[in-house]
Amino acid sequence: MPFKHYHADGTLCYIEIRSVMIMKDILLEYNPKLIIELGTYLGGFVRYILDWRGTITNDEMFRPKIYTWDFVNMLSDDNRKIFREKGVIIVTEDLFDNSILLKYLLSLPVKKFLFVDNGCKEHELHLYSACLNPGDLMGIHDVGTEVILDRVKGPLAQFDEHPVSVKKLRHTKNDGGCYTRIYERKNWIGKSKPPEVI
Length: 198
Ligand SMILES: C[S@@+](CC[C@H](N)C(=O)[O-])C[C@H]1O[C@@H](n2cnc3c(N)ncnc32)[C@H](O)[C@@H]1O
Description:
The protein has a single domain, classed as 3-Layer(aba) Sandwich (Rossmann fold). The strands form two sheets. The chain has a seven-stranded mixed sheet with strand order 5-4-3-6-7-9-8. By secondary structure, the chain is an alpha/beta fold. The protein has seven helices and nine strands. α1 packs antiparallel against α7 (163-169).
């Protein structure tokens, strides 16, 4: 399976290219103010986000802020420098540690995209997804391989699958495959209530 490919600058990206391109369309339309990636690895996906972010506006103030999490920093010197120059916040922390910073960021009242692409995605979905606000988007990678949807029914009950995800990310057998799904946090209605953040 073509799970990985190289960004034009040579950085290995551990996400299949078709999923990346569909996420681009969704993100450019949604225009989040905050993008949070769980699982930086070599920084491949962040390199793409920086490309797209550059097309939104030249004004740094109006560009989405990017955070990326990993428990080790494996970035090349070049990528570390580029991330620093472009204001990407690199957080080196074990996501098993019930991160207060992450919960705080996820609960902020701004449009967000959370991308779950770290080592134990089902666990992080249980820990963190409920902190997102209604309307926020969440991408999950490795669906069907590492993330078995039946096992994350609980956290996903508060989400609807994004229409573009249903249409494009599920039907790609002839295009090299997609292992990503995008979800949108539902409104807090009925008995559901805002999550406790800390
Ligand atoms: C598949 S890679 C991410 C690929 C990356 N998003 C890209 O664009 O190429 C998964 C990453 O999750 C990190 N990871 C695994 N378990 C973690 C944990 N408990 N906390 C933080 N990061 C973790 C690994 O170190 C690894 O770099």
